[in-house]
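Full entry
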Amino acid sequence: MKSSSQLRLFEEELVKYLDDDLMVLKALLPVQGAPDLRQDPDSLIRIFLNIEPLQENLAKVLLEKFAILSHEDFSKDDPKAGLHRKILNSLRWLNFVVNGTELTEKLMEIIDAASDDVLIEVIVSCPEIIPDEFHEKVATALKEKYDNPRLTAAVLDTFGTLTLKPEVIMNLRHAVIKSLDSAPKEDLPVMVKFVSTSITPKEALGEIENLRSNLNLDRSKNVLSQMSSQRLARRPTTKVQDGDDFDVMVMDIIRVSIYEIKIADAWFQAIVHADALKTLDVLVLLLLRDLPNKQKNIDALVRNKIRSGELTEELLKHCFKNHSKFIVTIFSSVQAIAESLMCSHEKVLQGWSTSIYLHSFSHLNQYCKQEIVVDLMTQIGTNVQTRNNAIATVYILAKDQTNVLTQFAVFISSMLDHVTTLTLPQVRKIMDILSILAYNSPKTLHSIRNDLHMAIRKQITASGKQRNLKQIGILSAVGKIFLSRQVSGFTKVSG
């Protein structure tokens, strides 16, 4: 009895002590003394919270204090600024919870009354404060906050860490999927993450089809909602710039999810049976192409979609123009598909290879441009089957993107090394390419001119078995003169 009365007396004195906000602040500081070097020392309040007879009343007092402080506006220099946050943190990851029911109800009361900024902090802390057996009650309360745009990300982050029954998760997932098309773009990454991480292998095909149907990366960009400082703090890598950044984040989440074989198969089947392709499908195909066990299947699927007319030039252009930031991250797949199509015997597929190279060169970064040039030079030099297509592609680039292509003169000049193994029409085309770069660019490259002059002199002076080479040299010289005069204004090219 004496110990019980002493405990009550201690609790009363502790409550009086904590009535002073500055005393609360001191009690939340790490205790002094000889701390365990293996971990940070606890505060006085943390020590008391982990004493069973004290925890229930102390937690109640702290949450009441939190509710009051969270509504007050302190100056930046006020020592009590952020005190409510410190109180909340003291309740996280307790060794045990004496009365989970009361603790949950108290937090639910705060959720009902708190401002949005405070709510974000409380919501994301719930899984770390409330025991697992009360998580469904938390989920029910949070579902009511889901429609608030400022809280959506925090609510979904929390859903993903709560311990819930499968049917509860499924209902939440369906609600999220249905709201994808109307959600602000900055919320799409966390929404897609919740959907992707909550799918079980048995549900994969149906849920991925639902996700694909409702996730639209082509809709007009929404005005980004103002994100609170707390929300940004939880996403340190997020930069609020333009919608493309969020699209990249969405695709990165899908990239991680497809390492689960059932998810990858579900995406593949969903695209196979799609009535019409959309941007998301093209980007996912690039992701799937990067998986070792999917390469042949993806190449075959791309060919079939081209033949059927489902994959259109307009869609391809849109993807490269509006989603270049993501495509750069998966450029190896772009290259692989382009090479595969160029090796085809079907002219329509060869043409698509050229289109992929051209759009890549137009919209991707400098590294990708260089890789394209190197790739095409390799095909000209070693692959007889694709040589004509590669030369034709470079020729289009030379005409349409002369100034940009001249930046890769050192690679382009390597075509001269292969003229002895090429046909006369092929050599003529190569000489046209080099002449365009040498004489039609404002940034005249003496290196290309010099290489071209030397090659022509060598060809013209050829004799004997190299008679064919002499013919090439004459044609090249005529073409060079024609282009140089054209640039100088002496002649005009007729249609």
About this structure: Residues 220-241, 485-495 have pLDDT under 50 and may be disordered. The CA atoms of residues 172 and 467 lie 77 Å apart. The longest helix spans residues 467-488. The chain is about 65% helix and 0% strand.
